[in-house]
Design a protein that fits this description.
By secondary structure, this protein is of the alpha/beta class. 37% of the residues lie in helices and 12% in strands. Helix 4 crosses helix 12 and helix 13 runs parallel beside helix 15.
């Protein structure tokens, strides 16, 4: 299926026809869907907040619980999937999700912890070059982390925080405005940190172009990929991104509070002298258990690890990554463009002036999310959708975020969502 060659039609039979042609439709059966009191599947369009549970996750976790019961501490070496190197069995498939070299990727910690660890290494302000560039409407946790790092280094937000915002009466940030700031203020900018996909508007930034421009001004570049990993096609190594962090409980379906991921470009990952906060799991494996007092980091992103990994949450992530590896990110992104395009078509076909899609129309500047502003509305509309069997996401004051996830959402889901929106009074 190709969006450019697909002429959409606004009726249920058309949606069902697209589902019949969908080569990825079998993956829907691999996930648990929430149900109503009568046992009917709810329309779940909230994978941008919490992904659905893979049906295999329970058996993956049970395997580790069984090995723990059977082996105790010996499970580190003799479990079916030995715990000592457990994180390593996730590396190849996680690297495939973000298109990086395995040596550049590690699964560890939580997103904001990883962000702080990366800024220890990549935010090295000087008197002349100390600014951090972020989105004005970045996710709050990113703002807190950035502002606290600026304060930690003894600088002021007034002088060292540079926030980018949309033009007046516009919803997303123009790429040319980002490039202009880089060009005009680059000599004073130490770090550029953007969300790969903005959590509120769903805008996907042109990461390759932005990274190239920043590097010409000797600016280090990082991305928070919480809403991008598992959602859009990434090429972190080829784009020469310096570092990136992401959670895994949204599009990557690892479960609530699931373990996060981290990317450090090979240029830095192999540099043992790179400043960092150190922990023993980042120490060279061959001498780790000799308990030396001097830290010697592992080559690669693993050298930023602090503690031994949480096996149960990694097992849950492994269940999802195995599905991603089989489905393939390119295939998923192709379906995503079609799903999201179909939702956009149906919303436009409502011809309702009270609805405004605040996500870019360009498929290359968005992923599996449309943010829908409903003028003169309030949370009662969202509550009405829940009563009609739809789970999506509400952001104050008037935005519904709907995410048709290609791994498990169908074209029928999309049709029924827009139909429910219409019946809810929009």
């Amino acid at each position: 299926m190709n969006q450019a060659k697909t002429v959409f039609e606004n009726h249920l039979s058309f949606a069902k026809g697209l589902d019949q042609k969908d080569s990825l439709k079998k993956y829907r059966e691999l996930f648990h869907f929430p149900k109503d009191s009568k046992g009917n599947h709810l329309i779940y369009l909230c994978g941008n907040s919490l992904g659905l549970q893979p049906k295999s996750a329970k058996s993956y976790i049970d395997q580790e619980l069984d090995d723990w019961a059977r082996l105790g501490v010996e499970g580190h070496f003799h479990a079916k999937h030995p715990w000592m190197p457990y994180h390593e069995i996730l590396t190849q498939k996680m690297a495939g999700v973000v298109n990086a070299k395995p040596v550049e990727v590690v699964v560890m910690n939580s997103l904001t912890v990883n962000l702080h660890l990366m800024m220890v290494s990549f935010y090295r302000p000087t008197m002349l070059k100390n600014k951090i560039v972020i989105e004005q409407n970045a996710f709050p946790s990113d703002q807190y982390a950035v502002k606290s790092q600026i304060h930690f280094h003894g600088y002021s937000l007034e002088n060292s925080l540079l926030e980018i915002s949309p033009e007046p009466n516009e919803n997303w940030i123009r790429t040319e405005n980002i490039l202009k700031i880089i060009e005009e203020q680059g000599d004073s900018i130490a770090l550029l940190l953007l969300g790969g996909v903005n959590y509120y508007t769903g805008q996907a930034f042109q990461m390759k172009l932005i990274t190239e421009a920043a590097h010409k001004k000797n600016i280090l570049v990082g991305f928070d990929l919480a809403h991008a990993a598992g959602n859009i096609e990434l090429r972190l190594h080829d784009w020469n991104v310096d570092f990136a962090v992401w959670c895994s409980y949204k599009y990557l379906n690892s479960g609530p509070g699931g373990i996060a991921g981290c990317f450090v470009h090979e240029h830095f990952a192999m540099d043992g002298e790179m400043p960092r906060f150190a922990g023993w799991w980042g120490h060279r494996k061959e001498t780790r258990f000799s308990m030396p007092s001097s830290f010697s980091p592992i080559n690669g992103a693993e050298g930023w690890q602090l503690s031994n990994p949480p096996i149960l949450t990694m097992a849950s992530l492994k269940a999802s990554l195995d599905i991603f590896d089989e489905a393939g990110m390119e295939n998923l992104c192709n379906k995503s463009r079609l799903l999201t395009g179909f939702m956009e078509f149906l919303l436009d076909d409502l011809q309702n002036s009270s609805i405004e899609i605040i996500t870019p129309k360009d498929p290359e500047q968005r992923g599996a999310q449309l943010s829908i502003r409903v003028k003169n509305s309030n949370k009662e509309l969202f509550t009405g959708l829940i009563k009609k069997g739809v789970i999506c996401d509400w952001r104050e004051p008037d935005v519904i975020r709907a995410a048709p996830v290609p791994l498990y959402n169908s074209f029928e889901d999309v049709f029924l969502f827009v139909d429910a929106l219409k019946k809810a009074g929009v």
